[in-house]
């Protein structure tokens, strides 16, 4: 039976006749090469998925399949495989007939429906239940030792002073009369790190995906961009500092979604990118009769030879007078906002799409870029005056494309998040050689999976030869979109790296997780905290630079703020996911309710009757029962 059914499965014309004929008829009706290539891509993807199913599901009854998480064995027979194939065909039919526009970004990828995304999300949740622990790999012990000592200095880790809040407050009161300092910065940082955010407060809910969120004006306001063509500004108002909608700006042009938004430090200018060969810049001013919205848009065209181009990443310079951008044209562009012109253009900066750009140092002279070729490149603007547009250094070691880059702010370290499900920290004093860069590019080219609609394959833990990264972190999931990871702000001592995750959570890594054994090659658990709560991929996260809170935006349309609350560990609420349900900092707080103290009321009534019987008096009970407030 197994041999007959396996031979039947090899006849793919019997399995996919309607699918192939349907695509073939569409291609014949429309001779457009673009449509033909799209149909061919769907056929190829369908065959790849069928091959994966045949590989993962053994037909012979004696073969066993070890599950990754539970390590339990399961027997498969012909009936199970028939059900699996039928389910696969039904899913393909649903995906083909769906009107979801998620594949509009690149038509060479099969359409991914909401049902398919939900199935992948649930699958990764099951995987994460058995893999809560992350891993940290030290690439260079000497460089990591320098990074560790820097963090310890910022966190007062080299001193033996107590971090007990009671003792610190007592010492502060004692030293004040003598003119001493109330509390050192290191002590404040060390105490603050004991109260990482743990509870969520929902700020906004949308029916469309949210792509970007960031704090502006020193953490006073929050900017969120979504797929519904709006950029929303939230500000803290009221006695409890809730985030309330200040204004919503509708962008002039959007193709599929707003891919990235950047706001300058003063908060009076912004720019965004979408699937168009232009950067859209706007000045934010007060509303007037001539300009009711208070927004003046300017389109900065990006020369491109491609029919469809996207701007994936944007950054303002520190002074706010320039914008650095990168996209699918593989070029880096710098625009001067005073002359509204392009002043720098680096052709073929990467061999594939540029997904992330970043200014490296405080003077905005160093430029970082990361692309789908798996490389992180460093450019020095001071060399551009001599018409030298070659990178001054390259970081190689990832096995797949880069999704985000963030600088630590000390002109030395930076991190990169990648589709190979890892985060790497790099040192500007240790670049990779040409051989390592070549091996990285070749390794990326050998990748045959698409992170937008396929689950992540098993990744090897062996580093590439020539990998010069300081540390490598693993424990989060990068799927569907360009998930972002960042360093924690200065008030935390820059001790943490936090990232979004395709499992709908925020993952916070502690860079001092292996403090007890920094050089013995061990793999401790670097995950300091996980913040689950979203039901879709968390694309962007941002830590408030002046407050102990983290903002998240996800593809479930929810924008949330995470804060620390001592009630989270022992109080839960039956009313979840309610905006502004109670005056607490989280959505899990159980509100104060009225309830009748029946037992106490009966005891009081019994006592009154006894007293009345002794004295011979008659008493009347109050018609209104007593109401007491309690938690």
What keyword list fits this structure?
DCAF; WD repeat; Methylamine Dehydrogenase, Chain H; disordered C terminus; five-stranded antiparallel sheet; WD40_repeat_dom_sf; 3 domains; disordered N terminus
How would you characterize this protein structure?
The protein is an alpha+beta fold and 631 residues long. It folds into 3 domains: 2-129, no CATH class; 135-163 and 198-563, Methylamine Dehydrogenase, Chain H (7 Propeller), CATH 2.130.10; 595-630, no CATH class. Helices cover 24% and strands 29% of the residues. Strands 3-24-23-22-21 form a 5-stranded antiparallel beta sheet. A 4-stranded antiparallel beta sheet has the order 4-31-30-29, with no helix packed on it. Helix 3 packs antiparallel against helix 4 (33-56). It is globular and about 105 Å long. The model is unreliable at 1-31, 54-110, 570-594 and 619-631 (pLDDT under 50). Keywords: WD repeat. Residues 90-116, 606-631 are annotated as: Disordered. It comes from Haemonchus contortus.
Please describe the topology of this protein.
Elements: H1 2-10, H2 12-15, H3 17-29, H4 33-56, E1 64-66, E2 73-75, H5 78-97, H6 114-129, E3 135-138, H7 141-154, H8 165-175, H9 185-192, E4 199-205, E5 210-216, E6 221-226, E7 230-237, E8 242-250, E9 260-263, E10 269-273, E11 278-284, E12 295-301, E13 311-316, E14 322-327, E15 332-336, E16 341-346, E17 354-359, E18 366-371, E19 376-380, E20 393-395, E21 402-407, E22 413-418, E23 422-427, H10 434-445, E24 471-474, E25 485-487, E26 496-499, E27 505-510, E28 527-532, E29 538-543, E30 549-554, E31 558-563, E32 593-596, H11 598-615, E33 627-630
């Amino acid at each position: 039976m197994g041999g007959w059914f396996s031979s039947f499965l090899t006849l793919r014309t019997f399995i996919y006749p309607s699918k192939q004929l349907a695509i073939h008829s569409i291609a014949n009706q429309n001779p457009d090469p673009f449509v033909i290539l799209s149909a061919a891509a769907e056929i190829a993807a369908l065959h790849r998925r069928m091959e994966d199913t045949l590989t993962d599901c053994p037909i012979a009854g004696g073969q066993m399949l070890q599950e990754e998480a539970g390590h339990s064995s399961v027997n498969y027979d012909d009936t199970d495989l028939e059900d699996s194939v039928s389910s696969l065909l039904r899913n393909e039919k649903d995906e083909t007939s769906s009107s979801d526009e998620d594949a509009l970004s690149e038509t060479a990828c099969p359409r991914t429906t909401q049902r398919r995304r939900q199935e992948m999300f649930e699958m990764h949740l099951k995987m994460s239940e058995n893999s809560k622990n992350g891993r940290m790999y030290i690439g260079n012990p000497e460089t990591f030792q320098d990074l560790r000592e820097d963090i310890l200095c910022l966190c007062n880790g080299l001193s033996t002073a107590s971090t007990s809040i009671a003792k610190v407050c007592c010492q502060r009161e004692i030293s004040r009369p003598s003119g001493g300092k109330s509390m050192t910065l290191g002590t404040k940082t060390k105490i603050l790190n004991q109260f990482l955010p743990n509870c969520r407060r929902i700020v906004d809910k949308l029916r469309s995906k949210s792509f970007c969120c960031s704090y502006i004006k020193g953490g006073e306001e929050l900017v969120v961009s979504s797929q519904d063509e709006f950029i929303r500004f939230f500000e803290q108002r009221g006695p409890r500092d809730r985030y309330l909608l200040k204004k919503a700006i509708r962008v002039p042009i959007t193709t599929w979604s707003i891919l990235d938004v950047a706001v300058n430090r003063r908060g009076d200018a912004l720019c965004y990118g979408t699937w168009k060969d232009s950067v859209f810049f706007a000045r934010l001013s007060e509303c007037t009769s001539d300009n009711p919205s208070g927004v003046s848009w300017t389109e900065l065209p990006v020369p491109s030879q491609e029919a469809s181009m996207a701007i994936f990443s944007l950054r303002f310079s520190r002074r706010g007078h320039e914008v650095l951008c990168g996209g699918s044209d593989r070029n880096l562009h710098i625009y001067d906002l005073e002359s509204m012109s392009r002043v720098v253009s680096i052709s073929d900066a990467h061999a594939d799409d540029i997904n992330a750009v970043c200014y490296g140092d405080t003077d905005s002279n160093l430029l970082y870029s990361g692309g789908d070729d798996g490389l992180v490149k460093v450019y020095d603007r001071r060399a551009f005056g001599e018409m030298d547009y070659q990178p001054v250094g390259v970081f190689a070691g990832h096995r797949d494309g880069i999704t985000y880059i963030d600088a630590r702010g000390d002109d030395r370290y930076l991190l990169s998040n990648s589709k190979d499900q890892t985060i790497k920290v790099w040192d500007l004093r240790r670049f990779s050689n040409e051989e390592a860069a070549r091996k990285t590019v070749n390794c990326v080219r050998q990748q045959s999976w698409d992170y937008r609609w396929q689950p992540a394959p098993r990744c090897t833990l062996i580093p590439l030869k020539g990998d010069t990264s300081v540390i490598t972190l693993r424990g989060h999931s990068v799927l569907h979109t360009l998930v972002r990871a960042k360093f924690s702000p200065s008030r935390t001592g820059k001790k943490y790296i936090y990232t979004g995750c395709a499992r709908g959570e925020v993952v916070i890594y502690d860079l001092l997780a292996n403090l007890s054994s920094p050089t013995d090659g061990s793999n401790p658990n670097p995950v300091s905290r996980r913040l689950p709560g979203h039901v879709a991929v968390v694309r962007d996260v941002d830590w408030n630079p002046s407050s102990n809170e983290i903002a998240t935006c996800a593809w479930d349309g929810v924008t949330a703020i995470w804060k620390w609350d001592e009630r989270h560990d022992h109080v839960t609420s039956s009313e979840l996911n309610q905006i502004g349900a109670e005056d607490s900092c989280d959505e899990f707080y159980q509100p104060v309710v009225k309830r009748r103290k029946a037992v106490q009321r009966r005891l009081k009534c019994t006592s009154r009757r006894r007293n009345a019987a002794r004295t011979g008096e008659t008493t009347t009970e109050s018609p209104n029962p007593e109401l007491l407030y309690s938690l």
